Amino acid sequence: MKKIILSIMLVAGVAALTPVAAQSQKTVTVGGEAMYTTKDIVDNAVNSKDHTTLVAAVKAAGLVETLKGKGPFTVFAPTNDAFENLPEGTVQTLLKPENKKTLTSVLTYHVVAGRMDAAKLMGAIKAGKGKAELKTVSGGTLTAMMNGSRNIILKDENGNTANISVYDVQQSNGVIHVLDKVMLPK
């Protein structure tokens, strides 16, 4: 029989028994908030202050239910700063209802089927002799390459590159890697 180690926590003056495993659940902080492995991609992303533009875009494109699905998905998630660095008016234009198809294409260009953590990405790059072609859900291709010995960069079909600033944000239905630029399909 397994032993469960319990600890006592004082919360608002009330003692509560909490399993140690629950207290030490591995989390990564993104946008000032903890990302929990027990939550799905959308439920975690809505809490990140660095991804409010991405969340608004996912909602406008009607992709919430998809990204809450079973997956697994690998999401390369651009920050608010990444969206702000697009040409002026781009985000506002993409968020208009008449541009939903284009917005969906841009967003799904940041999603790869399966769970590709940093180790798998690096393995694919090594196996590809310095680069790995990643098929996106939109049907496009992102190229992953090493920038030094520990940093992975992505190149879109237009030759633009983005750095992964936060790796391996594990989700219940996949993994998120935070990007410093928005990748654009051809």
Automatic annotation (TrEMBL):
SUPFAM superfamilies: FAS1 domain. It comes from the Bacteria. Residues 38-183 form the FAS1 domain. GO terms for cellular component: extracellular space. It holds the Pfam family Fasciclin. Keywords: Signal. Residues 1-21 form the signal peptide. This is Fasciclin domain-containing protein. It comes from Pontibacter oryzae.
